[in-house]
# Entry
Amino acid sequence: KAGVTQTPRYLIKTRGQQVTLSCSPISGHRSVSWYQQTPGQGLQFLFEYFSETQRNKGNFPGRFSGRQFSNSRSEMNVSTLELGDSALYLCASSWGLANEQFFGPGTRLTVL
Amino acid sequence: GIQVEQSPPDLILQEGANSTLRCNFSDSVNNLQWFHQNPWGQLINLFYIPSGTKQNGRLSATTVATERYSLLYISSSQTTDSGVYFCAVPFSSGSARQLTFGSGTQLTVLP
# Structure
């Protein structure tokens, strides 16, 4: 069974631009979560989707948004990029809301 | 929210040595995960262990939920074991769930 996939793997943007990241969960998994990892803040929860509904959101500004499609694939969007948004963005999937989570390889975003 | 603390923050070993990594959490949890982050950033699942002990090759983990801690044991360490080890616990909010991560243990295994 294929693992969690994320595209693109690397991305370079400039301040003020917007970016969309994609995540395809493990087949059969219905829950997708997003995390941001930075050297200063560590791993922080962004949001979780289940059955196309956002179930929870972390403490991030409204510039960070996401959605989930009927096939469980998820996208997250960051608008008006700031230098501090440079990070590794990790996506995780699980079968349900209280099950083991499996992570993708991540998207490394650099904002110049 | 729940607090997760990992110790030690850094650990340097000679190849072949054994090590114990600790994870303390501030509230009761119904599961706990251990991960190894590889040099490319991907989190690799090691254990899903809400309680008790599990073993997988040279690695084993024990969670004592009533005392709010978990231990990860690495025996006969190899250079490929180097990297950052994270524990994570869920913080439930209604029907939603998020993983709260510790700050990690940076393990370096020297040849």
